[in-house]
Design a protein that fits this description.
Blueprint: E1 13-20, H1 25-39, E2 42-47, E3 57-64, H2 65-78, E4 84-88, H3 93-96, E5 101-104
Antiparallel strand pairs: 1-3, 1-4, 2-3, 4-5
InterPro entries: DOPA-like_sf, DOPA_dioxygen
Protein name: DOPA 4,5-dioxygenase family protein
Pfam families: DOPA_dioxygen
Length: about 120
C-alpha cells in the first residue's frame, strides 16, 4: 500500500481528478456535482476512458488556492473508496503531474508519455 504525501496549498491553481470505474460512475458524478454546488467550482466532462496522463476514467474539478483548504478535506471525507489525484496547474504539465501531485486514497501510476517531446 502506498503512503502518498498529503496535499499542501502552495500554488495558485489546481485540478482534482476523481478516478472511477463503471461500478463507481454514478458515485463519482455525484461527488463532482456536490463539489460544484457546494464550492461553486467548474467541473470538467466525465471521461469514460483514459485521457491524457490519467490511466483510469476521470472527472476534473478546477479550483484555486482560496478553495483549497475547504475543498481538499471535504473531498477526502466524501470520496468513499474513490481515488482523487490533486495537482498544481503551473503551466509545466510534467512537473504538475510529478513534483506537484498529491493523492487522496491510493496513488496510481500516471502515463507521463503524453508530456514527452516526440523524437
Amino acid at each position: 500500500m502506498n503512503n502518498p504525501k498529503r496535499p499542501v496549498n502552495i500554488h495558485q491553481a489546481y485540478h482534482a481528478h476523481v478516478y472511477f470505474e463503471q461500478e463507481t460512475l454514478h458515485q463519482a458524478i455525484r461527488l463532482c456535482e456536490q463539489a460544484s454546488k457546494r464550492f461553486a467550482l467548474k467541473i470538467g466532462r466525465v471521461n469514460q476512458k483514459p485521457v491524457g496522463p490519467h490511466p483510469k476514467w476521470s472527472c476534473q474539478i478546477s479550483f484555486n488556492d482560496k478553495d483549497f483548504d475547504a475543498l481538499i478535506p471535504w473531498l477526502d471525507a466524501n470520496r468513499q473508496q474513490l481515488t482523487v489525484l490533486v495537482h498544481a496547474v503551473t503551466g509545466d504539465d510534467l512537473r504538475d503531474h510529478t513534483e506537484y501531485v498529491y493523492w487522496l486514497g491510493e496513488s496510481i501510476a500516471l502515463d507521463l508519455s503524453c508530456f514527452q517531446d516526440p523524437a
